[in-house]
Design brief:
single chain; alpha/beta; Enolase-like, domain 1; TIM Barrel; 9-stranded mixed β-sheet; 12 strands; globular
């Protein structure tokens, strides 16, 4: 079996705002083979730039478009192809957008491998250690406390046993937000896990205030309080904070995560499989984390393609405390698959069991939101 082409599809909502919602547009990748098997992947940062990286012609030996690198290759040699793409994009890649684009292709290659062998991806990763994962409802911070509390209560009523709010107006006033957290804890009770995602850096002193406010409300972790590049600040904050600190959604490759763990002292890291390097690199990140006793709780604010890939990954690793589940009312989130992935009444999400990722696109949704240049 050989790869015959890489198809890219940009989906975009009719109106896109510069807010914290990272699923207002998305790049879908289809990797085609001469056997007729098609693999599906996704990346969700600046789709037009990602598309250019995939289809760019060769510039020099270490600066090539990804499609040209893999066409003609055996799609079952997934890890070798990851290393080949890494080597042949060393000038433009190694971090950032090139790795995001590689992530989408890597996810699609794992999908092909599973379909070709007639098994779900988690079986290729060593087998399922679990068949469902506890989901946390992940939502943007509402503008007013009453709406926030109503949303949280609605999620708990749906069966979620964990809830995270982030971005929005967070970060301006730790005392005000701490009071809201206290109200939120009272509204959902002590049995529901709460997480707080600042989204944008607030500086060390303010981050520590949020950590103490979160501790009073019993949050499970405080996410992204500092700049992604402030490794020294993270090391100080992890030592001083009364609650666990988590970060990593903006990072790519195991090398960045090793820095977070070794230099930044992080005990929870959050690789996004559609950014950090796909399933292949996520496994390498997990291996590095496990040797350090660090928990891996992936970021997965994206479509059901990434949710499926993340579920297969989480099924295969030793500890999988949570699946991030975007609860926003967004057609790219809710209607992209012919059979959308949803939590059960117990707040867990089943790991797909069909071959490959176990998902199929809803082509009507694809055509409705397909973006074409004017």
């Amino acid at each position: 079996m050989r790869i015959t082409g890489v198809e890219t599809i940009i989906l975009r909502l009719p109106e896109v705002a510069p807010n914290g919602d990272g699923l207002q547009d998305v790049l879908i990748v289809k990797v085609h083979t001469d056997s007729g098997i098609v693999g599906i992947g996704e990346a969700h940062t600046m789709p037009l730039a990602l598309e250019a990286i995939i289809h760019a012609p060769v510039s020099q030996s270490a600066s090539q478009g990804l499609a040209a690198i893999i066409v003609g290759e055996d799609p079952l040699e997934v890890e070798r192809l990851w290393d080949l793409m890494w080597a042949r994009t060393a000038v433009l890649g190694r971090r950032g957008l090139a790795i995001h684009a590689m992530s989408a292709i890597d996810i699609a290659l794992w999908d092909i491998a599973g379909k070709a062998l007639g098994v779900p991806v988690h079986q290729l990763l060593g087998g399922a250690r679990r068949h469902s994962v506890t989901a946390y409802a992940s939502d943007l911070m509402a503008d007013d406390p009453d709406s926030l509390i109503e949303n949280a209560q609605r999620f708990v009523a749906r069966g979620f046993r964990a809830v995270k709010f982030g971005w929005g107006g967070l970060g301006a006033d730790p005392k005000r937000d701490g009071a809201v957290l206290d109200r939120l804890r009272g509204a959902v009770g002590d049995d529901v896990a709460l997480m707080l995602d600042l989204g944008n850096p607030v500086g060390y002193d303010t981050a520590l205030e949020y950590a103490h406010a979160g501790h009073a409300a019993g949050i499970a972790f405080l996410e992204e309080p500092l700049s992604a590049d402030d490794l020294d600040g993270y090391a100080r904050l992890v030592r001083a904070s009364p609650v666990p600190i988590a970060t990593g959604e903006k990072e790519t490759t195991r090398f960045s995560f090793i820095d977070l763990m070794d230099r930044g002292g992080l005990r929870i890291v959050q690789p996004d499989l559609a950014r950090a390097g796909g399933i292949t690199e996520a496994r390498r990140i997990w291996a590095a984390a496990e040797t350090r006793g660090v928990r891996v709780i992936p970021h997965s604010w994206a479509s059901d393609i990434l949710i499926a890939a993340t579920l297969h990954f989480l099924a295969s690793i030793r500890e999988a405390p949570y699946l991030e589940y975007n609860v926003m009312d967004n057609p790219l989130r809710k209607r992209l698959l012919s059979s959308p992935i949803s939590p059960g009444s117990d707040g867990t999400v089943a790991v797909p069991t069909a071959p490959g990722l176990g998902v199929e696109l809803d082509e009507e949704t694809v055509e409705r939101y397909r973006w074409r240049p004017a």
